[in-house]
């Protein structure tokens, strides 16, 4: 209890000290004793955090956004008069309706995705859909179901992680052909976007595979709103932050975050310094991995491990507008290429925007890195030559407009969405989402059941604001640093030579030189009977 009260006092005193020290040229709206909160990034996590702060009565915040718009990786582009999504474009329904309900609040238009509506073509231009469907039904689908139940069981039993590949193999799926490869890419890489040897099998139960926890089993929804999907974020912003409000500052690229006694100081590219009592970092995992922002002091090892061992996935939506359509009418056109993950997945935009003559190819994973290093001309050449293979004998009409976003090359984003690799533990994940002092972290990686989606940005932003609120009100030990489990294990016996004050769980490593004699020591007599017997044996010997 005393410790608790101490922490409460510590919290308040640190806060009031830093408030008095504020000497900047810019202004928070309130100069009073309210905590100053800086939000870095105006994507889904940043705007959700600001709204949640506002709802709890904390209006003394500033949002710094590196680009000139709100929405982050939810970003539309115009092509031939049609609005298409260059970043997040689908809503994954979840049982709580978290994102769909926000989309509905701004009357966003979306349509259900129909993945059954697909055609598969091979390198000779032949329609191999029947082979695809047969292999899917007889081999992939049973293995996928096995993966799900195996993951559930492995979680329940506390088994170590395994790859999605290994569980699919145990379930009887071993890809044998180009058609098999495209089945995998469509069903696994398309969601993650990494191949099955990379993805966590254990977490398949938590993540996007799961109908049980994170997401509904119904099909995704494709956003087709002419205002763009980011209208959802702008709409959320408009609910609490009026147009032109100075608390939302555009083109402020953060370069340095310094954690000092009594406050945090954040510097931008233009050498403007903002001080704050709390900072909410909403940069992507990719930005954190690329050291686009310097932390001083350097983030602790457990945090850097957690950040760098998680993955930033890559997805490139290439949109092409042709003079006229020449492709199949289906929603999805899959290409069983000679090389796995070579322009496998196409979505027919004309289906949702008839007459638009737009076709999209979804490039996944490492292929995105390869393409981002090529110029547009070279990419278009590959794409057109792929289409000529898929539609051998048909004439390919000229491309009259296109869009090639490059998320990985952009220092504000460094990739598309996050992924949970095999071997990454929940303990490490807890470090990923833990604060470092009063620097908090939220984003599309921020929830173990929804990582890689807008849901995770939303959920983690609410969690962070909740934690800050508890810290401000002294209800939580806001200064207690995160401790990885491996650090929590050690010698917990005070009398031992190698007593570890940070250890919470005894690992049996205590080195005790003399027999414990105090009343509390007698407890350790049981634990270290072996050590003591050894000591007795040694003393007899010498
Ligand atoms: C959404 O549509 C409803 C019904 O047409 C309307 O009442 C509401 O004002 C609209 N909301 C927005 C944000 O456009
Ligand atoms: C595959 O299964 C689906 C759903 O049961 C069925 O509609 C379809 O006809 C099957 N296709 C083949 C080729 O077996
Ligand atoms: C910011 O400060 C650095 C070092 O003090 C200086 O080299 C740089 O020119 C400054 N940049 C701007 C935009 O003022
Ligand atoms: C520190 C530690 O592990 N103590 C354990 C020693 O053994 C007794 C009895 O088995 C446990 O109750 C203690 O927790």
From TrEMBL:
Residues given in the record as FAD binding sites: 254
Top-tier EC class: oxidoreductase
One MF annotation (Gene Ontology) recorded for this entry: primary methylamine oxidase activity
EC annotation from Swiss-Prot or TrEMBL: 1.4.3.-
UniProt key word Signal: yes
Domain Amine oxidase, first and last residues per copy: 44-468
Keywords per UniProt: FAD, Flavoprotein, Oxidoreductase, Signal
Designated name of the protein: Amine oxidase
Organism listed in the record: Sinanodonta woodiana (Chinese pond mussel)
